[in-house]
Amino acid sequence: MKKSVIVLIALLLAVTPVFAQGAKESAAASDDMPYKGQTLTISMWGYNMDLLEKNIIKPFEEKYGVTVVTESGNNADRFTKMVARKANPLVDVALFAGSWSYKAMEEGIIQPYDPSKLTNLSAIMETAQDPLGGNYAIGYTIQHLGLFYRTDKVAPITSWRDLTRDDLKGVLSIPGITTTYGPMLIYMLSEAWAGDFDATDVGWEKIEEMAPALVTAYNSSSVLNTLVSQEEVYAAPYSSFAWGTIKGTGLPVESVIPEEGLVGSFSMISVAAGTKHEELAHLYIDHLLSYEVQLAEAMDLVDSPARTDITLPAEVAENLTYGEELISQLHFFDHKAMAEVQEEWIDRWNAIFSK
Amino acid sequence: MLLLGPGAMFLLLFFFSPLLFVLAESLRGAQGQVTLARYGEVLSDAQFRIVFVRTLKMALIVTPIAVIVAYPSAYLMTKVSAGKKSILMSLVILPLMTSPVARTYAWIVILGKYGIVNQTMGALGLFKEPARMMYTEGAIIVGLLQLFLPIMVLTLVSAMENVQEEVEEAALSLGSGRIGCFFRVIVPLSFDGLIMGVTLVFTGCITAYVTPAILGGAKVLTLATLMRQEALVLMNWEAATVIAVIMIATTLLLYNGLRLFKPRNLV
């Protein structure tokens, strides 16, 4: 037994350097490249990673002579990892959806950015510059919750009220309450039926009315894509970044701007709390907000620009959250208010769907 | 004893320690005292009870079906020639080599509105309109059965291989029929394998995440999907640890409960 313990300890010691990789950084910095050899760790989504590498990461690495390491995953997984490593942070820059950025701020895993270090900050929409207050996050890309329907199967949708229509029973899906847009749908339904975003009891009544006849409530855009391509769903509110895939099914789908408008949101970028590369983290954020990067991302249909000076060709623009007509119709909701009711709303949702 | 060392150390470090940590966490009160308060909170929650009963119900449906389907197949596999057995074993193992995600997605194509089942039933005139099968408890049950059936078959095959052929021949020569021999000789002698198979399948059903998440969607929550929601969406790790302990306790209870039924007159 004793020997085996020794063998195991020796094995553990042998593999330790594997886990400790990355702690070392070469010190080959020079005056023109002061950060050369450093490693910047970004917590981000892995969706479209090849394009993100091409448009953002590679140019940044080449410009500053640094290495960018990514920790990819969905909001919840990455958030949990950062909270678990709070005492000994590994991440330098964190990208989250709005509500998760708010939670990250509350949890203390992101820190305020220094506006004086961001030359591109003034070039983005004013509402995106400090959406959480306290300079904790920047909305680097704008998105929206759209609404689409199958033109060959159901009558045109013109209002959020249409979601309770009889012809949509059995062919409608909505985002689940734990998704970014789930709670915002309740606000939109409240506005549509009661003329007041905050009359959420009305929104909840409508959820209860719709629930039995929903195909399902989807928890990720990839599930919605499957539902659309399998022709299970003829109408649904959708995250704007999934529109390309939905259209790509080749089915006759049309997105609409209902009379009550649509829901808007920002994906946000922040400096991670306790980063050892604060300067470099700011440079990365500034790089992401630069004209070149925002244009490249838009042209590849990855992210809609938060910058106001980007002009896009019509065929690109129609697939993004872009243009005065669309953006003026977007409603943005308070993340603090949503975080406060989250637990109660999830319980309420589970109660409705358990019936 | 020495040979047990590495395995035991690994389990101690990466299984028992986290398990103890989860157990301790579930019993820790707000002031650090030992309390059952969190269990009280979770167990008194109507939502939890609905999800718990649903998960248990699905496991209690899937496990007996797996036993009924797997026993004859496993028995046959111990009776055929070595060549045929190896082909049959490969067929059983093949699904285990496919990712559970891919296997589960295949059910969307099969059970979907315009899937194979609906198309066939429609062509035969049995369904006037496509039936809704996806995102129901039924879909999860079918998915879980497919996922865990190979495990049941493999466990039973290895248990029945240990039953000496002479014992079976003796029973037959003493006047027992084939069916009687199967139930009165083969089943009792392979009971340990049955307990193991039932425990593995039942545990699998209680803890499965991918299959209920894809085939049940957000409409049909199970213990595993509820635990994820508590841990990763609500950051309510306290409730998640309680759910985890309840899952473990349920399977331990089943395992030890089944052992009580083991025929005592057999070695």
Features:
heterodimer, A: 355 residues, alpha/beta, D-Maltodextrin-Binding Protein, domain 2, 10-stranded mixed beta sheet, two-stranded parallel ribbon, 14 helices, 12 strands, B: 267 residues, mainly alpha, MetI-like fold, 13 helices, 75% helix
Q: Any overview of this molecule?
A:
The complex is a heterodimer of chains A (355) and B (267). Chain A has 355 residues and is α/β, with parallel strands linked by helices. Chain A contains 14 helices and 12 strands. In chain A, the strands form 2 sheets. In chain A, strands 1, 2, 3, 4, 5, 8, 9, 10, 11 and 12 form a 10-stranded mixed beta sheet that branches. A two-stranded parallel ribbon of chain A has the order 6-7. The termini of chain A are far apart. With 267 residues, chain B is an all-alpha fold. Chain B has a single domain, classed as MetI-like fold. In chain B, α2 crosses α13. Classes of the chains: A alpha/beta (355), B mainly alpha (267).
Write the layout of secondary structure elements.
The complex is a heterodimer of chains A (about 350) and B (about 270).
Chain A: H1 2-19, E1 39-44, H2 49-64, E2 67-72, H3 75-84, E3 93-97, H4 98-107, E4 110-111, H5 126-129, E5 138-150, E6 172-175, H6 182-194, H7 200-210, E7 214-218, H8 221-229, E8 235-239, H9 243-248, E9 253-256, E10 262-272, H10 278-288, H11 291-299, E11 304-305, H12 314-317, H13 324-327, E12 330-331, H14 335-353
Helix pairs in contact in A: 4-14, 6-7
Chain B: H1 5-27, H2 37-43, H3 46-79, H4 82-93, H5 100-111, H6 116-123, H7 137-161, H8 165-173, H9 178-189, H10 191-207, H11 210-216, H12 223-233, H13 237-260
